[in-house]
Amino acid sequence: MQIGPCCRATVDSNVMAAPTGCGTALVTPFRQDGSLDEQALYSLAQWQIQSGIDWLVACGTTAETPTLTDDEWLQVLRIVTEAAAGRVPVWAGCTHNATSQAVERARIASRIPGITAILSANPYYNKPTQEGQFEHFKAVARAVELPVILYNIPSRTGVNLDPATVLRLAESEENIRGVKESSGNLPQITELITRAPRGFEVYAGDDNMALGVIGAGGAGLVSVASNEIPAEMGRMIRAALDNEWSTARRINRKYFGLLQANFWETSPGPVKAVMAMMGKIDENYRLPMVPVSPGTRARLEKLAGELGLLVHCPQPEGDLRTS
Questions:
Q1: Is 203 a known active-site residue?
Q2: Is 298 exposed, middle or buried (0-12, 13-18, 19+ CB in 10 A)?
Q3: Residue 287 is assigned to a structural domain of this protein
Q4: Catalytic residue among 42, 127, 180, 203
Q5: Residue 230 sits in which domain range?
Q6: Largest Cα–Cα separation, the chain
Q7: Would you give per-residue pLDDT tens digits along the chain (323 residues)?
């Protein structure tokens, strides 16, 4: 897929603001030969927007981003922004354990028309101190003018981003506008929400904690399950934000099993398996990710069938950009 001038969509000023609601951490579809399935990615982003999702995250954890080359990372961002065409915000994942590389990625992403924010996680493997993380994120923020969303995911990176460090960063750099919190620690997240300055948003990073985080005052969710059920997750989160808790709890009860099932094995294994069962993508991974086990696959298929998700939706023929 050639990404040309048509990707230079004018982004509505409201799209540039820190959003509320539900954003999807997109999977990255691959072909059987391991190459990037550009058409499937474009189609997936289009379906997400048509289903009412509030924003898209490209090249996050769920995207198997560590397996992408630099050129592929850039191509994914361009495809997603072209599909979005300024209709919804698009966050670019710019995580690296070398600060200089994270800064360079943030600079490159910020020059792509349609990218509205930079999402950057704790430096992995290095296990920096709180001061090291402060300097790392400060360098990323100072490299760009776009909003920067911090991403705290200690289960993947080996280090926690403490609330005190987040608050120092928010005070230090005015374009650090929020944090995706995937610590799984609700008291920590609640402390951050109650102490955060006005205009700094805290997003749930775990589907199964979304209602708890919103109940504490969070701004929304960056979701894995919305890859499979974007309309339903969007309705649930917006209902919670609108204080329509009976609706939010009803949707959560119906799909909570799926939210849990997406992590029966390492993500994005289960979510890609279910999406393949739905006919949305071909189920292909890049090592070290592998398909889910036969036992997990059988359980996923049973659950997806009970939820009415096993309806094959063939990919439309031709190039969706011309439709």
A1: no
A2: exposed
A3: no
A4: 180
A5: 20-262
A6: 52
A7: 333 333 333 444 444 568 999 999 999 999 999 999 999 999 999 999 999 999 999 999 999 999 999 999 999 999 999 999 999 999 999 999 999 999 999 999 999 999 999 999 999 999 999 999 999 999 999 999 999 999 999 999 999 999 999 999 999 999 999 999 999 999 999 999 999 999 999 999 999 999 999 999 999 999 999 999 999 999 999 999 999 999 999 999 999 999 999 999 999 999 999 999 999 999 999 999 999 999 999 999 999 999 999 965 444 444 555 44
Does a structural domain hold residue 312?
Answer: no
**Token reading at 263:** 């992590």
- pTM of whole model > 0.85? yes
50 inside domain: yes
Strand partners, 121: 151
Q: DSSP 3-state helix, strand, coil percentages of the chain (rounded to 5)?
A: 50, 10, 40
- Sequence length of the chain is 323
**Residue among 42, 138, 151, 280 flagged as catalytic:** 151
In a domain, 9, yes or no: no
The verdict on whether 180 is a catalytic residue reads yes
In Å, how far are 53, 219, 261, 307 from 252, measured between CA atoms? Answer: 17, 17, 14, 13
Structural element, H or E, at residue 211:
helix 210-215
Q: Count the domains in the chain.
A: 1
Nearest to 263, CA basis, from 182, 157, 158: 182
